[in-house]
Amino acid sequence: MDIKKYKDIDLDYELLCYAEIFIDQETSPGNLGQNAWADQRVAYILSGSFEGPLIKGKVLPGGGDWPVFSHQRPNIMKSDVRAVWETNDGAKIYVTYTGKIIKPNEEIINNHKDISDINSEYYYFRMSPSFNTNSEKYFWLNDIVTIAIGRLISGGVVYKIFKIK
Where are the domains of the chain? Predict the structure, then answer.
């Protein structure tokens, strides 16, 4: 293989935003049980916020995550999230993302009172958000590819979202 063909192909990225999303513990259906393929769950979004160099606002209630958990490996989940973000200047952004979370083993979880205290090196939490908006100011979001690295916190999740250049 001639690796010279790949000399100018590199991954370059920049911070898009930080995001914090809280789950509605009261109205979320939670675990729906095992279906033919996996263990299905549903978690509704209660609230949240996001902030970055070019974008800032709140996560509106009503979206959610429809994750599935593997039969063979119950600590692995595949997320399927849909949400609406509203910027501080009133623009609405439809955000969807999928990804995978491999939770830490039970011993690590049991050694921490709060899941927020578990160092993210003990689990894998990666998402690939996609943005859709008709806002002229934020229309550029429709054209970018992003990667999110997350961690579990008490009552929700936090993400650091990067724009791939």
Answer: 3-164
